[in-house]
Amino acid sequence: MHTREEKLEAFGRLLDVMDELRVKCPWDRKQTNQSLRANTIEETYELCEALMNEDRKNICKELGDVLLHIVFYAKIGSETNDFDIKDVCDQLCDKLIFRHPHVFGEVQADTAEKVLQNWEQIKQKEKDGNKTVLSGVPSALPSLIKAFRVQEKASNVGFDWEHPEEVWDKVREEYNELQVELNDLKAQRKALEEQGLDAKSPEIQAIKLRSEQEFGDLLFSVVNAGRLYKINPDNALELTNQKFIRRFGYVEAYAKSQGKELKDLTLGEMDELWNQAKQQEKKG
Prior knowledge:
Layout: H1 4-24, H2 26-30, H3 33-52, H4 56-79, H5 85-98, H6 101-104, H7 112-125, H8 143-156, H9 167-194, H10 202-228, H11 233-257, H12 267-282
Helix pairs in contact: 1-4, 3-4, 8-10, 9-10, 11-12
């Protein structure tokens, strides 16, 4: 690996390249915080994909792309005299030191759980910190990740199950409530449709909303179960997404090899091919 001097030299080179691009490249010169935002989101997701795949080569590449955006935003900030990359680094270091009194101070924290508890309490004491426990969760987070984070933050201040296995009673409770609600809503919807109301009517839209709320309660409880059993629900769902894509791709490839479209296969044929894909995965 490289020395500290080599790392600092490389970072300085990146700043020099960014300075030159901002002056000499028409595309880089015209970029703003808002124009870069969508690209930043895309680069972040590409990094997440590389991380999920443990693709070390692409992790390095995508980290560079994300770092470019950080340097780019800092460069724009320097042009308006609001902040520069030094301010970004200084604020980050100050925050890390302040939030790790068990490393840089006298506070004791022997476990990761204790560190997280201290972290939440410290953030609320900061001058510009979170005013409430959950205010630090970005509103724009994807819903699955947001559910996990709000549960995690609530847990850090003691709002949690005493024993992980207790959560399954809640999951079953939410599932049963959803079943009752769906059966009730199905009957109500049928009655309303028989009265001539279409799917866009306020009455039917209200029924749809109730269904979504109950389904959301069930999903929230399942996410909570994952958290309690140290399973990241977003990672777990992505693994299942990838598995489904692989198996469905196997079914689709077979259909094409026979000169058929997927719609030409019966459900039974597709199910048989699906099981073949599962068996091949088990064999490695």
